[in-house]
Amino acid sequence: MTSLFSPLQAGALSLPNRILMAPLTRTRAEDGHVPGALMAEYYAQRASAGLIVAEATMAMEGCSAFWKEPGIHSPEQIAGWKKVTDAVHAAGGRIVLQIWHGGRACHPLLNDGREAVAPSAIAIANDEVHTPQGKQPYTVPRALRDDELPAIVAGFAQAAVNAKAAGFDGVEVHGANGYLLDEFLRDGSNKRSGPYGGPIENRARLLLEVLDAVCAVWGSERVGLRISPLNSYNDMIDSDPLGLASWLAERLNDYSLAYLHLMRGDFFGKQQGDVVTPVRERYRGVLIGNMGYTAAEAVAAIEAGKLDAVAFGTAFLANPDLPERIRRNAALNKPNPATFYSPGAAGYTDYPTLDDEVEPV
């Protein structure tokens, strides 16, 4: 496992190992989408990750898709996140914030009646969203006008400013999993014409404008990007996912990003293909892989030069000391899906570490 424990320079981020914590929505924010003490404890427990990518966080008001997810657009949220970053740094860790807009995955019941917005007026089908009034079908979003998009870009830029004030080490732009920026990228959800629709270079325009704005705040060497060309989550599809991934990989060389975070597959197995190879062939920066990697598979991918690091999701959720467990080849705790999104400490901060499991003398 030596390659997993070698240091990695990701832009301006000096990572002590290549076992990264993927962003995991846990819906434990307090009223007002404010991170509290429980979230600070949770992230600090996982500070041995080479890098923590904090969960999807509302870049601006009115884009909630999960009811209890955190935001980074109010003074109270900034102060709450500052407690988190202070706790992680005190434990020796590094943490970046994933900034995000839910797009058509938002719901009026989560956003004081505000309608969901998207590139095109196409609802998420065959799924429901959790709201204060129980599960509800997704609504048909309103297609954003071109003249509204500068405000979206400005919202991401302000979120980047706020993340800096909250003490993060950088930010990750969420361009994956069927949320707003990904909805513009993929032609299954983007049916618009004009400068933000049609060919890939137009569909990628909003994402690249957001990257430009966020990099202007942080410097590109502290900005990452997450993409998921194959993932059908949130009713997503693209007619040419490998072509999209390849085009993005080449285009992103124009930025000196800290890293590109690539989700390699589809949660539901509807879309198949190898996106890692074409992205690795074209992208010259630090490439992080994600989705279902075992430690052994991560080692093999890094040693073969396919990836520079791997982000682990549910394994980190259930194993706050995941790097040490991998180092010792110890058994992993099994995650409990029933508590992924439930309130409180159960299934959140109560997973044992190896030290917890040792009987006192």
Structure description:
- There is one protein chain.
- By secondary structure, the protein is α/β, with parallel strands linked by helices.
- The chain has a single domain, classed as TIM Barrel (Alpha-Beta Barrel).
- It contains twelve helices and 14 strands.
- It has helices spanning 37-45, 75-90, 149-165, 180-185, 200-203, 205-218, 241-251, 276-282, 295-303, 314-318, 322-328, 354-357, and strands at 8-10, 13-15, 19-21, 52-58, 95-100, 117-118, 128-131, 134-137, 142-143, 171-175, 223-227, 259-263, 287-290, 309-312.
- The strands form four sheets. Strands 3-14-13-12-11-10-5-4 form an eight-stranded parallel beta sheet. A two-stranded antiparallel sheet has the order 1-2. A two-stranded parallel ribbon has the order 6-9.
- Helix 3 (149-165) packs parallel to helix 6 (205-218) and helix 7 (241-251) runs parallel beside helix 8 (276-282).
- The longest helix is centred in the middle third of the chain and has 17 residues, at 149-165.
- The chain is globular, with a radius of gyration of 19 Å.
- The mean pLDDT is 97.
